[in-house]
Amino acid sequence: MSRYWIGIASSNHVAIGVEGGFCQLGHGKHTPVMRLKPDDWLIYYAPRTQLKGGDKVQSFVAIGQILEGEPYQHVQTEQFTPWRRDVNYLDAETAPIRPLLHILNCIHDPQHWGMQFRRSLFEIDQHDFEIIADAMNVSEAVEPQAG
What we know:
This protein has helices at 11-20, 30-35, 126-135; strands at 4-8, 22-23, 41-48, 56-66, 72-73, 83-89, 95-96, 121-124. By secondary structure, the protein is an alpha+beta fold. The termini are close together.
């Protein structure tokens, strides 16, 4: 059974992952990508355009399904070998979070919603997944799956 996740990263980092067909979480840490399993769904939320600074984005920027295979390390530089998983990303529109704050179950306090998004990865329920996927105009992600 699929599980649903939100990963947090800057939009420029997400764009690199989408282009390469992978996800990377928590600055390349092993633990977050180990939580993801094949057929799980991942939605990326971007607080800003860049890791340090940049412009505010505060939107869901990518959605995809985790592919078969195990997490693997990728040599990005001699000093940095982040952990990744392969992802089949869908064509999606950016969806600002603010219009969704009062209808997402994962937001317990709309006044302080940002606290939930300070982690690199957290699980959401199917309701929230469907709301976000719909806001991103991704209908194939919410259609019933065979099996």
